[in-house]
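Weekly structure sync, notes
Attendees: PL (lead), two postdocs, one rotation student
Agenda item 3: pending single-chain targets
PL asked that the sequence for the first pending target be pasted directly into the notes so everyone works from the same version. It is reproduced below exactly as submitted, 201 residues in total.
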Amino acid sequence: MSAPYILVLFYSRNGSTSEMARQIARGVELGGMEARLRTVPAISSEIEAVAPSIPEQGCLYASLDDLKNCSGLALGSPTRFGNMAAPLKYFLDGTSTLWLTGALVGKPASVFTSTASLHGGQETTLMSMLLPLLHHGMLVAGLPYSEAALLETSGGGTPYGASHHAGADGKRALDQHEITLCRALGQRLAKTALLLETPRG
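Predicted structure, written out during the meeting:
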């Protein structure tokens, strides 16, 4: 049996959400847990298109077992018209078997996103990702205002989860506040998972 881990599950098109995932994973490790980075394949309107089972580069594709066996989940997506990207939604739509068995009930979960514009739907995207997690009975771990960077940021950062303003060309790097908040989110998720897993006597 593998050691307890936090699943950092994301979809990224231009790399910003992927970099956020890496920073959150760093926070998870700072919080005392292993982080397992996983992504989902792009989907195509062409029915014949099939993605390889192993991506050519980057993280492995997530399986339902990755999700079933995790101690907590950080879920990330770029914003698509104020909503999560279709590939991530497609993966979540296939988790009915986990819902039927209550496999995720009581596990902590956090969300994160990246947008091209500063007011491009960060908060609605985060909320769209929380909806299926609430249906699964997961416990939401956001970012409290005790995180000073949340009050100081001029880019991304919300109480609903970590966020990043990538710029119109998608090339704006994470600034120090955004990195701090990503790591804080990962750390909070790990610490919460450890508390929930600690046997009470």
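Discussion points:
- Strands lie at 5-10, 34-39, 72-80, 83-84, 108-115, 139-140, 162-165.
- The chain has one domain: 5-44+51-197.
Action: rotation student to compare against the earlier draft before next sync.
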